[in-house]
Amino acid sequence: MLSVEEAREAILASIAVLPEAEVGLLDALGMTLAEDVVARHDIPPFDNSAMDGYALRAADIAGASPQRPVELAVLGDLPAGYAPEVAVERGQALRIMTGAPLPRGADAVVPVEATRSEGGLVHVMEEVARGTHVRRAGEDVRAGDTVMEAGRAVAAAELGMLASLGYAKVRCFRSAVAGIISTGDELVGVEEELPPGKIRDSNSYTLYGMVQEAGGVPLRLGTVRDDATLLERTILENLDRVDLFVTSGGVSVGDYDMVKDVLGKLGEMNFWKVAMRPGKPQAFGHIRGKPLFGLPGNPVSVMVSFEQFVRPALLKMMGRRDLFRPTVTAVLDAPLGRREGRTEFIRVIAEWREGRYHARPTGPQGSGILSSMVACSALAVLPEEVGRLEPGSEVTLQLLR
Ligand code: AMP
Ligand code: MG
User: Which H, E and C letters describe 242-260, residue by residue?
Assistant: First the structure.
């Protein structure tokens, strides 16, 4: 048997990164940066006001208070979006809005609440130090800085940063298209009646969600019966449309031979027993250069195997630097009886309480108990050599959501 780490390492070592391309800014959302993003100018690009108020010279209003206001001549109004046409001299102020550029001569802003206006004059009732309520050019980002590095996923904040810096286009790695195939004579579609002996195909939906949540493009290629020629045809027909295949079912002992025959004939495939629970039987290899993951059919095995093997591989293909979920140490709130010998992935509810993470199992942990995946927010990873765990024991969690 292979350890989970050995299987994962073997998989990742054989995964190539997809080509990169220049994409429009909005299309970059969810993709991975293929270039370091360097600031082409300062943000903000100019000194500007952080408040609605008056731009003035701090020295002019030294000692100002409600009892002893200082009177300044108002030069005019400066809304955001316009360049100042005047400089502020001694004894003068310019009414200024948030975001408007600080005029020459001014070195501070007094908020409007600390002033009283009267005709062409303003009475300032508060003294401020130089620089008060002024946002300096480059205080967020300096021209020339590397703001984001290649390998980072583009989410909302990254999108905003790219926009601020004028990146209408950006180089990203291409998103991986994952062809998803369910296998099994027992499967019927979600819209069909359930005849005796049949179950609905849920795996192609969980896989669809997991691929998309990882930033990939899921493509459901349908359900194939336990029939070697059908599986072969589905794979071959779709080779040019996908970057990888993910199949479910047919790799455990009963169906082993059918899938093994087909996949073994089509490409270089490994059929592993991985020391993990759930998800012991795993098939992985390449068919005409496209990675194929043959996951076991049980609904939880599919999701746990995807997490451990497919997701990191998918992220690697798409150029991501961080391939793994965040992990934390948590204390168990309930006992866990278990047999040692395999890495076990227990579905748990993680909770931050009293300064640390706590974890409690969702309930029954069978590989067919899909409700455990619905209920859980993390996977507790129990190493091969660990046996029964008492409440209070520390466990490592992979945080899923
Ligand atoms: P297998 O790995 O093909 O032996 O399947 C193991 C278990 O998972 C069986 O109980 C199957 O009925 C179930 N199963 C296989 N494929 C799916 C699927 N697409 N959706 C839901 N359950 C499945
Ligand atoms: Mg099957």
Answer: CCEEEEECCCCCCCHHHHH
